[in-house]
# Entry
Amino acid sequence: MTDSLEVKGIDLRYLLTAYLFDYGPATIDELVDALAYHGFRPAGRPSKSVSEALRWEIFQGRAVRMRRGRYRPGKMPRATADRVYKRVRALHDNVAALSPRSRRLTTPPIPPAA
# Structure
């Protein structure tokens, strides 16, 4: 996708965590594909960026490594979940603003000729 938003750091971690909590266990490839489907692209090599982002989430207990390359959701306090989903919604709004369709819809109409 050419109009994708590059994500890294906390934004990438929150997107991945939200995906795991919404859809359950996933492989690195599935997570990379889900990011691309929703208009995001991880900075750097996608598989490495995703696995490194999940390392912090594992440390925090929000993700659990099932085996090499496969993760599942862990536990997340409600306040943290609210913060994560609020940021994820904002990121999705940013991607929507990048899409050609939204630009077409927000273009002001041409005034009629006098």
